[in-house]
Amino acid sequence: FKARPWQLKEVDSVCGYCGNGCTVTLGVMDNKVQTIRFNDKTGVNDGNLCVRGRFGYSYVNSDERLKKPLVRKDGQLVEVSWQEAAEAVVEGFKKAKAEKGLGIISGARLTNEEFFLLKNLAKGFGTANLDHSGGECYKGLTEGFMETLGVSASLGTFPQVEQCDAILSIRSDFYETHPVFGMVVNQAVKRNDAHLTVLSDKKGKFTKLPHAKTLLAKPGTEVTVLNAMAQVLLAEGLAVTEGIEGVEALKTSLATCTPEKAEAITGVGAESIKAAARQLGAAKKAAILLAYGLPYTAQSKELAVAAANLALLTGVAGRSGSGLYLCGEKANSQGAVDLGILPQKGGLGVQEMLKQAAGENLSALYVVGEDPLTSYPNRSMVEAALSKVSFLVVQDLFLSPTAQQADVVLPAASFAEKDGTFTNAERRIQRVRPGIAPPGEAKTDFAIFEMLAARLGNQVSYTGPAAVFSDIVNNSPNYKGIEFSQIGPQGVVWGGEEFAPAHKRVVPVAAAQGLAAAYQLVTGSALYHSGTVSTRAQGPNAVVAEPYLELGREDAAALKVQEGDTLNVKGNGVELKLKAKIGTRLPKGVVFAPYHFASAGLNRLYQGETAVAVELSK
Ligand code: SF4
């Protein structure tokens, strides 16, 4: 890149990667994003960006971007006009409706306005089968949070977490999933001496912070640790019980879930469980953090209930400056939920759509901004679903492995080419602005949905995102009163900075047992998310370049494995070869592989469980 800074056109927008929602300034020249830098200290990131946001944009300028619509003719995908492609899509979906129906699977990186149009389009195509990638996990979390708190969104804002004196991070390492939020937690720990408890099946970057205490639970047993913490608060009279329904029933159900019993199941020491519970109970301001997205689907409802019980018993839910944080993985995961990109009444969720498609009970799939073959669990079911539907439409930036199977491919736009809003994980609605035009004939999802709606005979046509936003405000109680033109550099947080639970009800949840196996494979994020765009960007690739299997030193010694050796990994009837990476963050018997590398085929082996029993050999 040779341009001088003053030669660049600067455009303020929002990072397109994760639910942190960092504000960015795009530096643009020759219709290419040449730089991304932080946006002069405005926004929730306060001048910080992580490696993905700062250096992970080169995929936007990639020569491999799709530039023309493609339609399959005589077995080959060939370039066609938009008119021909749109006609094929509308006719194909009409036919599907008359047969076994259509399912729509969306990514969580579309703008709120695009989600609104997509939901209307689903209605136009007569399908209730609509969901987004994190939908399955979100469904479980929502059920859990609605039962306990009556709301299913973060209760506070990220900056409030910096002032907390106790933080409990459950299952996710925010330094990986939401790195700039990870820095906020870091500040709370380093500047304000906050006590950080990390409850996870593996150590992470959080573990290394001063005062951080990691409760290393056997895979799938985090719920039991949370239950035991609730039991300690109730047994020691430390729990807030006033105004909370269901306390007696919870007490009875937890009577036997003592820290000692939990230790036997989870491997976390009884004294550590007691200390963590007491610390959280004594904090003046505390935060409980939970991430959601594709890799967190298993036990999501149970975890939500157990976390909410704890939030209620410690007073975290509803106390000023404290909060429970529900962090969606992708840039507009919260928007997908707010705008109802979830199964409509009687409709199917993502996994059920794929299952029905694999069983030839669904005629068509419309996949928008997702690459299920690469990133969804249970790859053989995804393969069957894609090959069994009679009509597959994929709308994306690249000819992904999923797009290669499609009957019609529609070339879409990246975040840097879009106008509208994203809503981040703390409910902050922010403006996304286009720095460049989409390459070739590619179009924004907004323009594609409008084109398909018009062809369907839908007369409503919008002048732009502001007009759609007014309709969102009229249709969504949470967005009521917000004006598009008023969304300034700090965004607008719907529901206010402190969002109160609608009710307070603790609910019993069964203790979870771990898996009995010599080796358990867990998966999750390693810098990337699903990898559909990040693995095409040079920045993240320089840090994590290839798939691997991580194992602890003790297991490596027992297996006589050295760093870089190839290991056979066998489980769920599938055998993979992965390079060994030896580290110190995994307990004996637990191994880890990041879920985003399609080439590794991990999603053949991993089918959505918390952990898979595997055999390892050299
Ligand atoms: Fe982008 Fe998330 Fe990194 Fe912020 S933390 S720069 S939103 S990827």
Automatic annotation (TrEMBL):
The keyword Hydrolase does not apply. Its cofactor is [4Fe-4S] cluster; [2Fe-2S] cluster. Coiled coil: none annotated. Residues 8-64 form the 4Fe-4S Mo/W bis-MGD-type domain. Transmembrane segments: none annotated. Keywords: 2Fe-2S, 4Fe-4S, Iron, Iron-sulfur, Metal-binding, NAD, Oxidoreductase, Quinone, Translocase. Belongs to the complex I 75 kDa subunit family. This is NADH dehydrogenase subunit G. It comes from Desulfuromonas versatilis. The chain holds residues 209 to 826 of 826 of the full protein.
